[in-house]
Amino acid sequence: GESVGLHLPTLSVQEGDNSIINCAYSNSASDYFIWYKQESGKGPQFIIDIRSNMDKRQGQRVTVLLNKTVKHLSLQIAATQPGDSAVYFCAEGNNNAGNMLTFGGGTRLMVKP
Amino acid sequence: NAGVTQTPKFQVLKTGQSMTLQCAQDMNHNSMYWYRQDPGMGLRLIYYSASEGTTDKGEVPNGYNVSRLNKREFSLRLESAAPSQTSVYFCAIRQGHTEAFFGQGTRLTVV
């Protein structure tokens, strides 16, 4: 899910289906990764995070998978609901970089009823 | 969002005008950040303050200055606004390497 200028990549799913949102990150030294959800007109909200020494973490209806070999992160949303419609961002951070978070370009998820 | 308050919510400036965006938190977090978000884009870090008394440049600091007034407040100043600074500005806070909490944003238009 990288930005292509003014047009966000869009994923359209049917309500009840599972969604998979992808993110390619650039820094192999990143220590942790975070997924954020941003609804229209609001600030980003934390969904789930994962440390670089893990390859999977589960939350409520969400799972994050980390593949360090190919520097790829994914967010899986089970039984997608209309309230899941939003823009999703991945962010990466490094323990030695002054608490900086670097965000990816975002993916728009649209849920069809 | 609870805990992070940004003011103003909306602002229109003329090119060359100056203004200060305010951010205040009530969560006692050490780190505070200013991001900008352009249409259809991710967030880009302008400046951050890892703790009270320190500030550092982020990815896009040119045209901005910041002040960490105290632990609660972190302001972002545009000395001479340019149309390229039209954006939505978000303040965020963190404690260590935990999740970041974001404010609701300031929508700035420079004409």
Topology:
The complex is a heterodimer of chains A (113) and B (111).
Chain A: E1 10-14, E2 19-24, E3 32-38, E4 45-51, E5 56-58, E6 62-67, E7 72-77, E8 86-93, E9 101-103, E10 107-112
Parallel strand pairs in A: 1-10
Antiparallel strand pairs in A: 2-7, 3-4, 3-8, 5-6, 6-7, 8-9, 8-10
Chain B: E1 4-7, E2 10-13, E3 19-25, E4 31-37, E5 43-49, E6 56-57, E7 65-68, E8 74-78, E9 87-94, E10 101-102, E11 106-110
Descriptive account of the structure:
The complex is a heterodimer of chains A (113) and B (111). Chain A is 0% helix and 50% strand. Chain A has no helices and ten strands. In chain A, the strands form two sheets. In chain A, strands 1, 3, 4, 8, 9 and 10 form a six-stranded mixed beta sheet that branches. A four-stranded antiparallel beta sheet of chain A has the order 2-7-6-5, with no helix packed on it. With 111 residues, chain B is mainly beta. Helix content of chain B is 0%, strand content 50%. In chain B, β4 and β5 form a beta hairpin. The model of chain B has no long low-confidence stretch (mean pLDDT 93).
Summarize the structure in short.
The complex is a heterodimer of chains A (113) and B (111). Chain A is mainly beta.
Key terms for this structure?
heterodimer; A: 113 residues; mainly beta; Immunoglobulin-like; 6-stranded mixed β-sheet; 4-stranded antiparallel β-sheet; 10 strands; disordered N terminus; B: 111 residues; 7-stranded mixed β-sheet; 11 strands; 0% helix; 50% strand
